[in-house]
């Protein structure tokens, strides 16, 4: 990719991370990157396109961070993935909060699609890490519920920061086990999966 | 409230429940209510205002349905509340899915605020029902996570309908207990609350 474009994108991501998109102008991005306004328009077309491009780039970054680092012990991998997730939330604080908590007057369906795309790919990362090929309905609902609760915990943490991050991350791993335990009572696939996970993590 | 306005609103809610807002026109609403296009404009001003008014009305309806019917046994009340929640989801299927899939990034600030307002009032309904005056951080995160997972389960059910509703509703009540159990390991307020809840439901 073009180096100049990358510099503009980095500047945009940094600004969207610190301020609500409504308070970031093309001029701000240009001046943060030491570029001209015209160059930003040249590469991105306009503010909305720049925002969408920044969002795609942030989504790709998040997914890269969450890619599992190893094959065994999925619950430890999950714990480490959560730490990297919260690093991301922290780095993109304003953008994350604005995007997910009812923020800017952005009507484009494109943005919703990017957000849902990330959720879907997270879902597949988790099932792959847990070595599940075809998640049945109960496992699907369980994992989607967990992903939603992680997102909400991220928003809550940005708003309040009154639970220590490590404790919050631990709680969310425990949530996963607790939700799977509930699912295990409803579905043999989840029951087998949970037994396998716990066996792998037995001392 | 004006009867004519109420009829228009009922027609709008019915249409927004069956079709994505993008596929509902002022003419559709007028003709469903046996009214003129001019009357819809008279009462609501335009499509966006009509949509926002319908959303407020649906939010008020949801909150009325979720208001607890009795004081004791909060977990049973929660189970019954979930049944009424899923009745609502079913009745407003298209509108609910369109509103919540993709997240609030899809909407104007006003709409995001209505959605967040419903979540906040749900939160307070639940804490009141559980007789908690001041939810601490761990309880707050736990309940917000649960509310998010209920919303996601509602969306998932509309998409797939491959788990029976009663089983899904039972799972979600079990999720609440499971998440509180996790929270109890991190915070004495949650621990006391959970013991109280379980004692109240002991045979």
Structural description of this entry:
- The structure is a homodimer of 203-residue chains.
- The first copy, chain A, has 203 residues and is mainly α.
- Chain A has a single domain (56-200), classed as Tetracycline Repressor, domain 2 (Orthogonal Bundle).
- Chain A is built from ten helices and no strands.
- Chain A has helices at 3-18, 26-32, 37-44, 47-66, 74-91, 93-100, 109-129, 137-160, 165-184, 188-200.
- In chain A, α8 (137-160) packs antiparallel against α9 (165-184).
- The longest helix of chain A is centred in the last third of the chain and has 24 residues, at 137-160.
- The radius of gyration of chain A is 19 Å and the shape is elongated.
- Mean pLDDT of chain A is 90; it is low at 103-107.
- At the A-B interface, α7, α8 and α9 of A face α7, α8 and α9 of B.
Summarize the structure.
Two copies of one chain form a homodimer. By secondary structure, chain A is an all-alpha fold. The first copy, chain A, has ten helices and no strands.
Could you name the key traits of this structure?
homodimer, 203 residues, mainly alpha, Tetracycline Repressor, domain 2, 10 helices
